[in-house]
Amino acid sequence: MRKNTLLLTGLLIAAPLFAQASCESLKNEISQKIIKNGVPENDFTLDIVPNDQADRAGGQVVGHCDNDTQKIVYKRNNSERGSSVPANAGTSQDSPAQ
């Protein structure tokens, strides 16, 4: 019984660390997709923000993580080239409805 309690406590403590790691890995995956679509690495940023701050982040939401409590926001650094994200840069859940 004591082992189960210790295991459960350990999992509860470690859960936020695993969630953040999954956000970072998804952010890196999306970044690689954008780069493969011809956008130079220095021309954009991806930020992980809480859902309630996504509208104020000043970019386009291209992914979500941490049980849908965080958004990954794309911002183009060079505004002269436009701010559109390559169509296949985010996840299928973030694609606009057609």
From TrEMBL:
It comes from Izhakiella capsodis. Keywords: Signal. The lineage of its organism: Bacteria, Pseudomonadati, Pseudomonadota, Gammaproteobacteria, Enterobacterales. This is DUF1161 domain-containing protein. Residues 75-98 are annotated as: Disordered. Residues 80-98 have a biased composition (Polar residues). It comes from the Bacteria. Residues 1-21 form the signal peptide. Coiled coil: none annotated. InterPro entries: DUF1161. Pfam families: DUF1161.
